Amino acid sequence: MTLRLAASIRTLLTLAATVALVGCASAEIGDSCDTSGSAGECVDGAICTQISDGNNVCRATCTADTDCGTNEQCNGVGGSNKKTCQPKK
Fold first, then answer.
1. Closest CA to 60 of 22, 87, 35, 34
2. Residues 35, 19: Cα–Cα separation, whole Å
């Protein structure tokens, strides 16, 4: 194998790995996600939580209402034993 071909293959593999990593980025708080209760889809400190319209978004985890904003309360998340900051009703 020539050096030029080896360099081209290495460049293509690096590009493919970069694209794969970017595609696997975690969702930020407030971003949509797929599975309620899943911590793996969201950034650290957040869990995928179902919202009132049936969709899912990443929300910040909490242990008490004091961990949340003034218009939020700490409630359980279906599909997990965790709690997230959710809008007060």
1. 87
2. 23
